[in-house]
Structures are given as C-alpha cells and as structure tokens.
C-alpha cells in the first residue's frame, strides 16, 4: 500500500455546506438552479435562515462528484452573493478508472 496505490485514487469534493448572504434577487429557486449548473454539482439544498430588509441569509448544502469549488465561488459572487463561512466539507477518495 505504497504511493502507487494512492496514485489511482483522487480526492474529490463531494459535499460542502456554506453560509451565504445574498440579495433578495435572484429568488432562492433561481439562485439554486444556477448553482446546480456548476461542474460536479448534482444536488443543491438552500435553506433560508434569516431575512433582512435587503438580504437573505441562507445555508447552502451542495453535493456532487468532484464539485469545482473555484467555479462555485465565482458563480456565487456573480449572483451578487457572498460566502460568509464554509461550515462543512466532505472530501472523498474516488478510484479512477485505469
């Protein structure tokens, strides 16, 4: 079980939970739909935590196989939102086909 066996496995981001502050527009449904198009994302769960006069605080639970975090972060910013914190991360080693 040396380095050779590790080379055949690649760590991939399979789940991430984010605390996000977004404007009221786009709606939570539209926001989630756009997030679901990020490479590697297969499921988006958006939970409204708090509503302010101009913003929504949401908890985003994103799951997939090899989520592209950089693209996810850029997409969230493009939608006019900000990541306050990363609350949970799950990385899984997935064996690559030879």
Concise overview:
This protein has 98 residues and is of the alpha+beta class.
Structural class: alpha+beta
Number of domains: 1
Helix and strand run: HEHEEHE
Query: Strand tally, please?
Result: 4
What helical percentage do the residues reach? Answer: 10-25%
Low-confidence segments, given as residue ranges, are: none
CATH class call: Alpha Beta
Q: State the distance separating the first and last CA atoms.
A: 17 Å
Gyration radius from CA atoms, angstroms: 16 Å
What is the makeup of the main sheet?
Answer: 4 strands, antiparallel
Give me the number of helical elements: 3
Per the principal axes of the C-alpha atoms, what is the gross shape? elongated
- Widest sheet: strand ordering: 2-3-1-4
- Residues in β-strands, percent: over 45%
CATH-derived topology:
Alpha-Beta Plaits
Q: In the CATH hierarchy, what is the architecture at level 2?
A: 2-Layer Sandwich
Query: Averaged pLDDT, please?
Result: 92
Give the CATH H-level superfamily.
Answer: MTH889-like domain
Structure description:
With 98 residues, the protein is an alpha+beta fold. It has one domain: MTH889-like domain (Alpha-Beta Plaits, 2-Layer Sandwich). It is built from 3 helices and 4 strands; from the N terminus they run H-E-H-E-E-H-E. The protein has helices at 3-7, 28-35, 69-78; strands at residues 9-23, 41-51, 55-64, 82-95. A 4-stranded antiparallel sheet has the order 2-3-1-4. A hairpin with a 3-residue loop joins strand 2 and strand 3 (55-64). It is elongated and about 50 Å long. The two termini are 17 Å apart. The model has no long low-confidence stretch (mean pLDDT 92).
